[in-house]
Amino acid sequence: MRNSAIAVQGLRKAYGDKVVLDGIDFEVASGSVFSLLGPNGAGKTTTVNIATTLMRADAGTVHVAGHDVATATRQVRRLIGVTGQFAAVDELLSGRENLQLMADLKRIRPAGRVVSGLLERFDLVESADKLASTYSGGMRRKLDLAMTLVGGPQVIFLDEPTTGLDPRSRRAMWDIVRELVADGTTIFLTTQYLEEADQLAEQVAVLDHGRIVAQGTPAELKRQVPGTHVRLRFTAAHELDAAAAILAGATRDDQELTLRVPSDGGSRSLRAVLDRLDEHGVNAEEFSVHTPDLDDVFLALTGRTDTTHTNALEANAR
Amino acid sequence: MSTLATSFGDSAVMLRRNAKHTLRNPVALFNAVLFPLVMMLMFVYVFGGAFKVQGKYVDYAVPGLLVMAIGYGLGPTAAAVNGDMTKGIINRFKAMDVSHGAVLAGHVVSTTVRALIADAAIIGLGFAMGFRPHASALDWFGAIGLMLLLSFALSWLTVAMGLAARTVESAGMATVPLIMLPFLSSAFVPADTMGAGVRQFAEYQPFTPVIETLRGLLTGHPDTGHLVVALAWCVGFAVVGYLWAVSTFRKRA
């Protein structure tokens, strides 16, 4: 556990009858980005609230930088930075004053350099002396994160940092996260966006209904889902027939004139498919490899595909 | 740094923040001071002539207006505290190594200061309208002390209501009883002129002893009986408000 920035074991939380976290475990390596991925109501924010000392768990432990959040609360608070789901900036203070407030509370004196440094880094110099109430959503988010960085926390928790941001602001936020990790900060990030976890995180845990349904690198998760396949398109029906006859386990689509061949996507298995076609003199007009993205993984793991499937069946039945 | 020094330091930072808010939002301050003054003009010049009280009506009305002004200034505090809670600012402070009491103390102290400014305005305008108290220096000291205590106690209660409310609107609404209660007290007319039911309510509700004590102090005839009841109510409000605020603050995230 020495090298874990965050270690969570058997974490449980319920509100009355409603179980929000049903025993979750994970570890986050120091200096890495860990993403907790899940839909609304999966328990992401509750996890963040417990790990950041805002809430007590019913059972289980969370250690941040080796300190138990339940007992060594003050030590944990000194080490962490938290950016909640909604930009928690003081709207009646200017951007500069918001940062100054954080510096005052962390007893950073003089704070001038820290404050102006963060304003520059987050491209907020021009609006530094305007009230935060006049800021756009993206600017508020940036100020919010800048406030979290005052005092250089070791472990940063970001709860859905890009929800509601336009694509440009989202990409700017990603760049900031990458810079922070390059500086050795550990980042725990929750998100609903699979692309975000894929882009940023070294480790991803998929949370659904209070349970972790999958955990690993984005690549490992993608491999857990069967469905990597080769797609072949033909120009004529007889070619499709010929190909279907020689490739075992393939599924054909007569309308599109395509054939789906299961494959692990590796070069050897691809060559085998191509060689087989070659031997029988069959020519495919188009050849492509489809790897499931995190979206497919997510849908498969949380069973949300089943819902879609059922709906489709119902629709067909009507 | 010792815990006490830390929480004083944090309280000073929070108070500075609240002071900036008040200065940034002059309309709210103006409103908090102006409304009680308008009520004063109305009661003294419009309705007052119809009320039968001992002595000049302005002398009778000032103590009630002082209490009403304190109550009137609470709405913005409840809304501000609730805004801090619902917008996640309190969570930000809670996840930092910041004294929890300091976050709330900032609101309590700034509300109390605002209430005292409103009361100073009432007394000032009162003098201009012919208010002539017969209070000794000690009586004045007592009256100011009671106003301070009432503002402090109601501020804690208001902070608790602001923390507990689900929305900013309901937080503001929660303080309405504190604004309305002075009307159902001996603030503007003696309780014994009221109808049965209302009269008993007026006699036993918390603001009546506070107003009667202030009236006694300002006319130079302090009444110990009322004073004891008034102090008990104030201390009660302060303790309940404080405990409620602190436990809500701990629980809500």
UniProtKB/TrEMBL annotation, chain A:
Membrane topology: Peripheral membrane protein
PROSITE patterns per record: ABC_TRANSPORTER_1, ABC_TRANSPORTER_2
GO molecular function: ABC-type xenobiotic transporter activity; ATP binding; ATP hydrolysis activity
InterPro entries for this protein: AAA+_ATPase (IPR003593), ABC_transporter-like_ATP-bd (IPR003439), ABC_transporter-like_CS (IPR017871), ABC_transporter_ATP-binding (IPR050763), DrrA (IPR005894), DrrA1/2-like_C (IPR025302), P-loop_NTPase (IPR027417)
Key word Membrane present: yes
Family, per entry: Belongs to the ABC transporter superfamily. Drug exporter-1 (DrugE1) (TC 3.A.1.105) family.
The organism's place on the tree of life at top rank: Bacteria
Listed EC numbers: 7.6.2.2
Entry keyword NADP: no
Record protein name field: ABC-type xenobiotic transporter
Localization, UniProt: Cell membrane
GO terms, biological process: daunorubicin transport; doxorubicin transport; response to antibiotic
Record keywords, A-Z: Antibiotic resistance, ATP-binding, Cell membrane, Membrane, Nucleotide-binding, Translocase, Transport
Pfam family, one: DrrA1-3_C
SUPFAM superfamilies referenced in this protein's UniProt entry, alphabetically: P-loop containing nucleoside triphosphate hydrolases (SSF52540)
One GO cellular component term noted in the UniProt record for this chain: plasma membrane
NCBIfam families from the UniProt entry: drrA
Species lineage: Bacteria, Bacillati, Actinomycetota, Actinomycetes, Kitasatosporales
Chief location category: membrane
ABC transporter domain span: 6-234
Species of the source: Streptacidiphilus jiangxiensis
UniProtKB/TrEMBL annotation, chain B:
ABC transmembrane type-2 domain boundaries: 27-252
Recorded GO CC terms: ATP-binding cassette (ABC) transporter complex
Annotated TM spans: 27-48, 60-81, 102-128, 140-164, 171-191, 227-246
Gene Ontology biological-process annotations: response to antibiotic
One term of GO molecular function: ABC-type transporter activity
Subcellular location: Cell membrane; Membrane
Bilayer topology: Multi-pass membrane protein
Record keyword Hydrolase present: no
Primary site of residence: membrane
Keywords in alphabetical order: Antibiotic resistance, Cell membrane, Membrane, Transmembrane, Transmembrane helix, Transport
Annotated InterPro entries: ABC2_TM, ABC2_TM_bact-type, ABC_2_transport, Nod_factor_ABC_transporter
Keyword field contains Transport: yes
Family of the protein in this entry: Belongs to the ABC-2 integral membrane protein family.
Protein name per UniProt: Transport permease protein
Origin species: Streptacidiphilus jiangxiensis
